[in-house]
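Researcher: Next entry in the queue.
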Amino acid sequence: MAPMFAPLRVRNFRLWAAADLVSVGGTWMQVLGLNWLILSATGSAATMGIVVMLQSLPVLLLGSWGGALADRLPARPMLIAFQALRAVLALTLLLHGGVWMIYAVALASGVIGSFEGPVLGRFGSALVPKESLGSALALGSVLSSAGRIGGMALGGVLVGLTGPGVLFGINAASYLAVIAALALMRTGEMRALPVAAPSERGVVAGLRYVLAQPVVLIVLTLSFLLGALGRNYQVSMAAMVAGPLNGTSGSYGLLSTVFAIGAVLGGLLLAGSGRSTLRVLLATGFIISVLQFTSGLAPNVLGFAALILPIAAGAVIFDTVVATRIQLDTREDMRGRVLATLGLVSSLSGIVGAPLVGWLCDAAGPRETLLLAGAVTTVAALTGAVALARVKGLALPTFRRPVPQPA
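Model: Structure for this entry, 407 residues:
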């Protein structure tokens, strides 16, 4: 079996991968339905940004405690409870209680995510041998992106035929697949992760550890900046479709599907190469930033889609390499708290970036927003490359022809 598919030898990982494929498909069907519902009802990209912010805010406030609990408590019972709660929240959206109910569901989802994220990460790393973790993360990105393709493609059809309510119901049902997979797993076949000493199990100990890792801090900073201004495409794509591209709900569904296809291609490329290195991270961050700038100049939906495809591929590579380096370059007994820090950074990028991008789309226009954000993230990628080169001793890429060396 090829290295990229090696994790599939593990029965527990196969169960988890299959359940994740179904669950991710349901999640993105709900995202599509919810985004279009909000945009149709309010006509405001800023409102969509507020929903993303409400999902992210609890993670910022509670994520560190979620990481500390993940390093102490058994993961499987907690994950079953989290999936059941998420199913209830999806069904709540069927009540059509207006924008305020959507806000409440988004906030509750964020509270669950603040505890669920670190638990998921630590649980996933226990399913495969340590040497297969990089391949498992890359393969997980591929499967998640495939679920996103299916969810967005089917959701793009259903939202026009049945309305968004059906999408919410399907998402609620998809969580049953995760609960079933968790119930069928063999706990004796899971890898036991080391546990920190009692004096190092708290939130403060985890924060102290992360602050002592300069490479991790630079990677997290890049993740924040490119995430805040370069990864909020659920806001900017909808604004471009409803604005300068003069698209429809079908156009939004098309772009969402293209984005998902690009994400699969990016995951396959990374999993096949096995190169989850800092150089790959820096090069990808620069390329997707330049492409984002260029997307602001797209003349029509098809031109925008042509740029969305490589942007999505690069975004998956960038995010997967970030997650891989964060886990492989840190201690396993700090895994939950390190992942909680990554989740905190991601939530902060949503809190800052989603409303900011939405406000800029409303105030300056979607095109101008993409141009500005692309320029800022390009500078950030270059600055991060210089900082990592100094800390890690990396050789920055050059365009000079190599000088032949004597035999």
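Model: The chain has a mean pLDDT of 83.
Researcher: Noted, moving on.
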